[in-house]
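Section: Multi-chain targets

For targets with more than one molecule, the full set of components is provided together so that the structure can be written out for the assembly as a whole rather than chain by chain. Components appear in the order listed by the source. The example entry contains two components.
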Amino acid sequence: MTSPVRVALLGCGTVGSDVVRLLHEQSADLAARIGAPLEIAGIAVRRVGRDRGDLPVDPALFTTDPLGLIKRDDVDIVVEVVGGIEPARGWLVEALRAGKSVVTANKALLAEDGATLHDAAAEGGADLYYEASVAGAIPLLRPLRESLHGDRINRVTGIVNGTTNFILSAMDATGAGFAEALEEATELGYAEADPTADVEGFDAAAKAAILASLAFHTRVTAADVHREGITEVTAADVASAKAMGCTIKLLCIAARNTDPAGRESVSVRVHPAMIPLTHPLASVGDAFNAVFVEAEAAGQLMFYGRGAGGAPTASAVLGDVVAVARNRLAGVHAASESAYADLAVRPMGEALTRYHISLDVADRPGVLEAVAGVFARHEVSIATVRQGPAGGGPAGRGEDAELVIVTHVAPDAALAATVRALRGLEIVRSVTSVLRVEGGA
Amino acid sequence: MTSPVRVALLGCGTVGSDVVRLLHEQSADLAARIGAPLEIAGIAVRRVGRDRGDLPVDPALFTTDPLGLIKRDDVDIVVEVVGGIEPARGWLVEALRAGKSVVTANKALLAEDGATLHDAAAEGGADLYYEASVAGAIPLLRPLRESLHGDRINRVTGIVNGTTNFILSAMDATGAGFAEALEEATELGYAEADPTADVEGFDAAAKAAILASLAFHTRVTAADVHREGITEVTAADVASAKAMGCTIKLLCIAARNTDPAGRESVSVRVHPAMIPLTHPLASVGDAFNAVFVEAEAAGQLMFYGRGAGGAPTASAVLGDVVAVARNRLAGVHAASESAYADLAVRPMGEALTRYHISLDVADRPGVLEAVAGVFARHEVSIATVRQGPAGGGPAGRGEDAELVIVTHVAPDAALAATVRALRGLEIVRSVTSVLRVEGGA
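Its structure, encoded as tokens over all components, is:
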């Protein structure tokens, strides 16, 4: 039999433990698929002595010296499931430069400074795989960077954060407010004690940067991504969406834009938005993830599955490990980073979006004209207007009315300026809900 | 610049023309992604002189000699979009043995005799890619054979035939019968003049064989697949499904079974079945395809998109072309067929299924006991029984009643024998509907 391929594992938390378990349970299958057995050369952890239950691994493999482990001659592949920027970056650069292939789930690092890792991989002639960094178990990055590379991707729209999807699904199902739904998510273990990274959209923004880079062959970092979380989504917003036949999701959107002169650019953003119930993403509930891809020739595609959790993430990690192990045995490495298109990343103000705006207005002649005038002055075209009694209740309060306006697409800055101008109108009592609308016809 | 990678195209119908168009429109992007330009070396067709509209290709490239084209020294990759067993098999074997990589959409050939192609690829050291053969544009085969190879797939359930999905969706939406819905599909171009391959399940069975082979690392051919089409699905069946909160889909199902002694086998089948409206496959409408995968660690995954059509299929073909072109430039080839598991394929009678059975019975004491006795004698356990007036109408006919029975899982042979025995009971006036049930809790 061929000599074993040896793996250094950095980190042994939820995902790391499941990697160890799967390696153990599937060892015969993995060896058959690779053409050589996979062995764990060592596991770098913070505390060697910690009780790890019945983890099927020799305790002598644990070490507190990750760099020493990486540098060992008998290590072929480095698997990193620690997360965070440093010290992970230093470890992975060290491994890649030394020609050791890396499999990582570290979305924050890839989104913050993927270029450094890709450069180190090119320098060392090593593979850098990171399927687990976005949408957990869903085979997504490899289809984007391989299966669809004969096509032209125009737009990627994803639900890539399970915590916020759980919260929004709960708000939609029960009419609860954000705080109440967050509490439920925390109790059930879907939200961390400090939920900031999830509910403020940082996690989704990192994934958006990774997806956009692959879809558009362009380096996109987390700093390029416009980010809004879900903390300001209200029960009233959810009710507004329902009245429109929609639901609210935290979406990451990466879109290719072509200006009138034919110049291409991309916009990448994360924010809550209304989508029609008929859209395939609308039925993605609970903590599931899904990514909707629109390509020139392929048309609409969707990938759906579990976005987080130890076993699903470990599945994606091991899929990558098998691939790099095979490459190693064949003496080749995978295509490196593809950033040849190098498209400009446009700021949010230039992204084309649609708004759904609810207003409480004075119920008297001339109001609709005044409101419509504000849209016209900002060159925002109105798609639909619905007028009803204020508060959505039965008619008869007499003084106030509710206006619900949905726009056509316009630059986001023009839409935002329209909302600011509406707030300044004397006849507008209040702007009760502003939501972007996606996935429309 | 690196010298071009040259492609021989066999066939220039709907898919072939779109391959030519995409190669032309995306040539700069494809060259950047591959690292060398892609060129068409020749196109084998039946009639050279045919009017091909504005196809962006030199007419001198057309030839009626496919074998001559394949054998030319300046051909690196052979793309086959002709279909059928012969002469395609002879051409592809010739190409592969000569070390020329093959990209094909030919599901019938792969399902009938994939082994011959895989063996020729191994012999010639060439790549054999066939993403377009199943579920058109959806990146599915590569995720199955690469992304999930660190995991263990237990079950694949797919809607892989757009024509039948269109027909069943129409029956569900309008209450139409099969003949009427087929007529609509034909008028709209979703069904061919001779719809046999689609409505009798042959197309889906070929795809089921390909999916099962990849999912279970086992050679499965079309002959191993139990096949039932949708021609016998009635409007009454569709109504029965609705009453159960279900819809009817033509499913291809490939499942891993483990017997009490721990021996593993697979069952592969295509038949119409009821699935709950809450199942992700239930909302896959019109001519869309989707494949639902259940893996040990990854959990539930779904892949959704267009299963047919020129451009979607051409997208999948070109994705493969880019991959094999890159392999060629790198001087490597992809992992060959993985059939190491070599599991036994069990006959349909041993597959575990659930039945939904509607009976018109005499409305008198002892009937339920007699019916229940038939199930018990066949060791089939009943999950639910609903009794109502015959025909589903208002009560009061007095003499007849309707019994709707849903079973737990049992060997299909036992369920089929139960239905035969029910038909023989004097008190059973008729068995009005028999449908398998899938995707249940």
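The longest strand of chain A covers residues 246-258.
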